[in-house]
Amino acid sequence: MSAKSGPVGYVYHLAQDDPKKCTARKMAKFNMVKLVTKLTQVPAGALALDPFAEKALSPADVDIACERGILGVDCSWKIAEVTFDSLKTKKRIEGRALPFMVAVNPVNYGKPFKLSTLEAMAATFYILGYKEKCMELLNLYNWGIQFIKMNQLPLDDYAAAKDSKGVVQAQKEYI
């Protein structure tokens, strides 16, 4: 993937969900992300999408993302907190939380913050300024475009923010 098309996306796949509903597997099938089963397969310092991270993802993270990649974590929401706590002990990744958005995937439709791996990766590309890459990912599913429609205003505000503080400030308009 060239810098123009966006940072390299990795997904740490823990095989905890129904394979038929796994958005990470589908992204990998179409060569849109690299599926990994060990964190050592991801460049050191990659930007990890962590819903429990203290710092919000922002456009200021674009250089790190382009240099080291973006890491989505495909795990069950039922044990997400435990999974991400164990990842925090790894020094190889930089955790970033996605700001408020509403899921449109069939499993968690309408639930705030409960994004599928595909929605999380797509939102990350959008916020970092790679809207075409975002749309490529979302077009893998017939419900994908609904994610943009449902979250257009906040995504635009997050993408326009200068840094993490600006994203958190923008988020306050939607919570």
- Give, in order, the helices and strands: EHEEHEHEHHHH
The total count of helices amounts to 7
What fraction strand? 5-15%
The mean pLDDT is 89
Helical residues, percent? 25-40%
Question: What gross morphology would you assign?
Answer: globular
- Residue stretches low in confidence (pLDDT < 50, at least 5 long) are none
Gyration radius, to the nearest Å? 14 Å
**Largest sheet geometry:** 5 strands, parallel
What strand order characterises the main sheet? 2-1-4-3-5
Distance from first to last alpha carbon: 35 Å
Oligomer: single chain
Which class do the helix and strand fractions yield? alpha/beta
- Number of separate domains: 1
Number of strand segments: 5
Overview of this structure, please?
By secondary structure, this protein is α/β, with parallel strands linked by helices. The protein has one domain. It is built from 7 helices and 5 strands. The chain has a 5-stranded parallel beta sheet, covered by helices on one side. Helix 4 packs antiparallel against helix 5, helix 4 (117-127) runs parallel beside helix 6 (144-160) and helix 6 (144-160) packs across helix 7 (164-171). The mean pLDDT is 89.
Protein traits:
alpha/beta; 175 residues; five-stranded parallel sheet; 5 strands
